[in-house]
Design brief:
Number of domains of chain B: 1
CATH topology of chain A: Rossmann fold
Radius of gyration of chain B: 20 Å
Shape of chain B: globular
Number of strands of chain B: 0
CATH class of chain A: Alpha Beta
Strand content of chain A: 25-35%
Order of helices and strands of chain B: HHHHHHHHHHHHH
Largest interface: A-B, 42 and 35 residues
CATH superfamily of chain B: ABC transporter involved in vitamin B12 uptake, BtuC
Oligomer: heterodimer
CATH architecture of chain A: 3-Layer(aba) Sandwich
Helix content of chain B: over 70%
Structural class of chain B: mainly alpha
Distance between the termini of chain B: 30 Å
Number of strands of chain A: 12
Helix content of chain A: 25-40%
Largest sheet of chain A: 6 strands, mixed
Order of helices and strands of chain A: EEEHEEHEHHHEHEEEHHEE
CATH architecture of chain B: Orthogonal Bundle
Number of helices of chain A: 8
Number of domains of chain A: 1
Distance between the termini of chain A: 44 Å
Amino acid sequence: MSVQAISMQLEQVRIAQADRCLIRDLSLHIQPGEVWLVLGENGCGKSTLLSAMAGWHALAAGVVALQGRAWGDWPHGERAKMLAWQTQQDECPFPLTVLEKVLTGRHPHLPRFAWESAADVALAREQLARLDLSLLAGRDLATLSGGERRRVALATALTQDAPLLLLDEPLSQLDLRHQQQALQVLSEEQAKGRAMVMVTHDPNHAHFFAAEHCRVLLLFGDGRWLAGPRAEVLTADHLTALYHHPIVEINTPDRAWFIPR
Amino acid sequence: MNLARLTPQKTLLTLSILLLVLLLSVIISVSVGSTSLRPWQFWYDNAESALARDVVLELRLPRTVSALVVGGLLALAGTLQQVLLRNPLADPYILGTSGGASVGALLALLLGVGTLGVNAAAGTGALLSILIVFLLAGRDRSSTQTRLLLTGVALAAFCGALSSLLLSMAPDGLLRGMVFWLMGDLAGAHWQSGAAVLCILLLLVWPLARELNIMGMSAESAHALGLNHQRLRWVLYFAAALASALAVTTAGMIGFVGLIVPHALRLMIGQDLRLLLPAATLAGGIVLLWADIIARTLIAPQQLPVGVVMALLGVPAFLYLLSRRAVR
């Protein structure tokens, strides 16, 4: 499965919620195969930024472009083949099985009158298997736990097979083993050349991805931001300023850990 | 059989079974009544048979078809409204859509415009009431969505009051016709335009079923999967309003078909609208047909209004569903 190489540019983007400016003059260039971790306090605009990158939340100023073409000019169907967006809310008011939910990821790839093919089902089941969900395929979504639902949402985004993934806290509510498993899956996808923007509350997640591809974006919630390679941005000082709480760096033989004091 | 998802085979099988049940129900419906007939009497060549043919062709068959059409329209309208409002408890009667349609129609009758005008006014009333509900409570994201239901119920009550107001303002000459119209009945109903609209709506909406599946999940998911959310929403508005309005102008106010039928089907066949839309339309027809059979046989030779039978069956079912949701 080859992944199309695409890049997204943000130019002088301003994100506001009501009349509060959350992010000012953000310029980023997301390259194929890059993983961007978005960190910040609750309510600092992480989800809103992802929503704006997906073309849902309206920008207060600036441009988001994919392949040099303004995002708003992309036809709806083409956009969904380029970008998958896993939101935080995934409540469905109707009964839906796990497999049905994951198969919705194939929707952008199917012609109007086509039914999901055997290949589509195989792809969906493969993603379920990677996230340890195979046994739940026939279960109703409403009967799953929060963490299981998050994994189903991640499997859906992966089934969409888009070169750019926007993941809003994909690892929250996951138990330790499934967090490690999901991180492993994401780093495999990154190795295939998929670009990812991922909101998380754990700076240590950054170390799962190859250092040369891992970028970090810190959002301070008052318009200020800091973006760059992991080694430059992810320091105890920056994190202390970000979370308004002392963060220390602990070095173990293979890597560094950031923990609150 | 693979139960985890809907397959074309399962769709065909389910629809075939429903069609079979529908055919059986039609045969029973034309056979029972104040005079019971056996279907084979039809082909004898004597005076009794001629009478049987008259009864069946002139009275029972049109009434049967009306029940199928109106039931289908109501179930389709209910299913579409549920997707539009993302709430499995939406129903054109409960949310005041039928009420809006009847206010529009009564106003048109009062002003003395023709049949087409009455239909157009009913459609406008239905559309306006869906819009009001959606604008006031469409953003209700709570899990029980109480605000949405309350807004709809309040609007339905308001429409009921408006209808009474219009009736009290009506001159005596028009009053009888208006009351008769409001009560509604399947006997002597004109099913032709309803049937045509039902077919057109199904042909229009069924190809969109996979997109509507995603619309029902969440607005963000729909956007992320590449749907033109705004356009689809307008399609749903118009389709649901048109179906409710035609059901009301054909047979008056009948509630709960659009609620119970999709709900029961969902438990059996799942939410996939590729099957649920046509299945609900067929099953809606079947349910209303049986309500009508009960209505005209229970205390025969007297007849009950079919809307009363539907409400007597539907309200307990609705309350049961509501209480079960509250527990979950």
